[in-house]
Amino acid sequence: MPARPGTVALVTSERLSERGWNDTDTPLVRTALEQRGIHAQLVPWHEDVDWSSYALAVLRSPWDMFLGHLNEFFDWLEQAEKQTLVLNAPSVVRRVLDKHYLQDLAAAKVPVIPTAFVELGQSPKFPDVEFVVKPVISGGASNSARYRPDDVVAATTHVKYLHEQGVAAMVQLYMSSIDSEGERALMFFNDVYDHAIVKQAILAPGESFEVVRKLHPGPRAYEPTKAEQSVARAALEVMSNEGELLSGRVDMVADSNNNPAIMELELIAPTLFLTHDDGAVERFADAICRRLP
After folding, report:
1. pLDDT-derived band of residue 5, with 50, 70 and 90 as boundaries?
2. Can you give the pTM of this predicted structure?
3. Cα(122)–Cα(159) distance, rounded to whole angstroms?
4. How many structural domains are present in the chain?
5. What range does the domain containing 125 cover?
């Protein structure tokens, strides 16, 4: 059945429980939109839906795309963008799916954690300090692991596994500040900074890359420094050239010189930690309202 005119689709999935994932924010956003007179529905992206009946489709939690449904998701995205306004822009989604975009940030002089890419067929070279191996395409810290300098055999096996899956690997230096100070995440709505959290380290040394981890451990409200906000804005400015951003999350840590450096950008369907800042749910609902045609 077509949605009533002016309805906002909050795009999610019914398969999140397969990985133990849970989207607690989006029902709150739906309520806030309804309170503003905007009809909203939680709509699984994989359902047979007339997307042209929606005024706007907001990507909220279609995270199961990373559970073996990537091709299916991007086929859906191609069709959906022909029928309605999808945010974040599909052009941005396609660009940031592959973490090679970190090279673009570095080229634009945005501080990025030192990262080396191991393309298919290449042999890895590992640093003589702690490091992380992860696939260039992944979500929820899947197929990622933290290694000590003497874990070369295990790390090489990890890279080989990723290459056998047809995915390039990346090797990032592990910043020890994550263990002592946590990882910062800065949230932006319509390119405007809104709030931030800090969370605990998700990777532990000695864990296999096959471990299924609890996402975003120990999040709490955080007041970012001016330097952190500046780095986050610079990163988003680079990516804004790819298309419109309704929401974005910039994940960063303190580098070895105690300066902020980007770990990655979450611009597909970011967790926004809306309950960790008073009024964030309402402000995000307002941001959505401003994007309605």
Report:
1. low
2. 0.93
3. 10
4. 2
5. 97-289
